[in-house]
Amino acid sequence: MMFMDWILHNAPVLILALPLLAAFATPLVGKLGKWPRNVFVVSVAVIVEALVIYLASDVIANGMHTYVFGAASGILLPSGYSVPVRIIFQVDAMSVFMAIISATVTLAGIVYSWAFVTDKQGQSKYYTLLLMMAVGMFGMEFTGDLFNMFVFLEILSIASCALVAFRISFSESSEGALKYMVVSAVGALFVLIAIALLYGQYNVLNLAAVGSAIQFTALDKIALVLLVSAFAMKCGAVPMHMWTPDAYSAAPAPITMVLVSASQASMYALFRIAFTLYGVSMNTGAVGWFIIILGVLSMFIGVTMALPQKDIKRLMAYHAISQSGYMLLGVGVGLATLGSSAFNEYGLTAMKGGIFHIINHAMYKGLLFLTAGAIYYRLNTRNLNKMGGLGHTMKWTAAFFIIGALAIAGIPPFNGFASKVLIYESVFRFSPLLSIIAMLVSVLTLASFVKVFHSAFMGPRLPEYEGVAKEVPWPMFVAMALLAAIVVAMGLFPNLIVDNLVTPAAQALAGRADYLNAVMGGA
Question: Domain for residue 51, yes or no?
């Protein structure tokens, strides 16, 4: 029992330390062969998943989990000067909700990669970078320190950029990685300047400490603009989405799936900055409407740009932009109504819908990208005009695609329907026009995926793919089956997810005072 208590107490740091150490150990284990290395990496991912679920059960049942690194009184240097080394991980229901997404998607990506990525492509380096992506995501979600949020953002960006460019023989990989690198560099610069502005005024970097002291001065407003712009850019919101189609389509399929989760980690940072760092000290209505506008633009432009695409992964990339708009819309309505009676009437429900859509999107969009990867694995093409009749020989892949397509379109009984209904109903009370736009986007999404299904899976078998178009190896099948099962289960039992995960996450995000008191009271 004491061991389990120790595990629980140290879970936040173990969730980061295990993949971090494994990332550096993977090339060494890889010297033993493919199977030892793959078993090692999968085992680490499974342990991390179990730790995240264990931590989540405690956080939701007992409240925030604070983990402090360093000495309370600082480190005494020989000169007699004391350097305060005190970094805090603050894990609340929203943080651990995001960690569940990151852990699950990383696990599915690692399993899928077992067969998808061959030894010729340098698998050991590939897994090292994938584990580093997980470290970056967990760090951004757990940290209570602004500068460390920047550090983990950089870790995530560097690993992601390398994996986007992983297929060095393809020119589009270099192009996609270059665009991602430029956007990441600009975003990181914005974040760093914003942190400098806040630190220069308040002499602290802890998120709760800055939030407690913030006075919303002119410099604070500049920092807010920089932070919102940076994280909106990193999550692929329109009009800062220019990198997303190129990076998503160029990366290997399992990496594209994890990139979606990485973008959501940046979206989490955006929400954390808006609600926890600034909160009611700023004009929540203005900032909320700004996020709403980003969401509506992302929804509409994303889906309209997806319709004419012939590249199946590029089409899905634009749909990823579109679906992020639902999350921004829901949480934006919650922010716009924060502090008013409307928040309790429908604002909190809108937030629940937006937050629920984050995990739903990660699951069904991850599934769709994996099905696209399965098609590319067999046909060596992403061009829809060169596909056809795959439903005859890739029946399971077709079934998984149908599940993901119906979920993203918001068709019952799949998980996308559950979160979109919450958004439709609550946003309608805020602005009927916004709700109508959201429903129209879902109709266009369904039309787009009907086209994809018809092009790829319907019709006669193409003779050039005879004997080639067959089901994928079992690791790829297992990863797709895992996500498909989650999509169906969350659609059939949405109340379990909403009551036990989504509602605590929404309340934690909106409960700025509780977050600040938990950290400052224990400081």
Answer: no
Q: What is the pLDDT of residue 119?
A: 63
Checking if the pLDDT of 42 tops 70, the result is yes
Q: Where are the beta strands (DSSP E) in 192-329?
A: none
d(CA 251, CA 160): 9
- Separation of alpha carbons 22 and 45, rounded Å: 10
Q: What is the mean pLDDT of the chain?
A: 90
Query: Is 481 inside any structural domain?
Result: yes
In eight-state DSSP terms, residue 390 is G
**Which tokens in the block code for residue 482?**
């895992």
Q: What DSSP string describes 150-212?
A: HHHHHHHHHHHHHHHT--TTSHHHHHHHHHHHHHHHHHHHHHHHHHHHHHHHHS--BHHHHHH
Rounded CA-CA distance 346/169 in Å is 51
User: In the prediction, which pLDDT does 513 show?
Assistant: 85
- Give the pLDDT band (50/70/90) at residue 36: very high
> In this structure, is residue 393 part of a structural domain?
yes
Is the distance from CB of 470 to CB of 393 less than 8 angstroms? Answer: yes
Task: Give the Cα separation of 412 and 390 in Å (integer).
Answer: 25
In the prediction, which pLDDT does 72 show?
55
CA separation (Å) from 58 to 41, 44, 54, 131, 345? 26, 21, 7, 25, 29
Q: What is the pTM of this model?
A: 0.93
Q: Tokens 């050039």, residue?
A: 464
Tell me if residue 146 falls in helix, strand or coil.
Answer: helix
Query: Contact 413/492 with Cβ under 8 angstroms?
Result: yes
Question: For 14-23, 137-146, 459-468, which range has the lowest pLDDT when averaged over its residues?
Answer: 459-468
Number of domains the chain contains: 1
CB contact at 8 A, 447 and 411: no
- Across 180-189, 282-291, 385-394, which has the greatest mean pLDDT? 180-189
Contact in structure between 96 and 52 (CB atoms under 8 Å):
yes
Residue 159 neighbours by CB under 8 Å, 6+ apart: 129, 130, 132, 133, 136
Sequence-distant (≥ 6) Cβ neighbours of residue 444 within 8 angstroms? 303, 304, 307
Domain that holds residue 337: 283-492
Check: CB of residue 64 under 8 Å from CB of residue 518. Answer: yes
Any domain includes 138: no
Taking CA 155 as the corner, what is the angle to CA 154 and CA 159, rounded to the nearest 5 degrees? 115
More confident residue, 21 or 124: 21
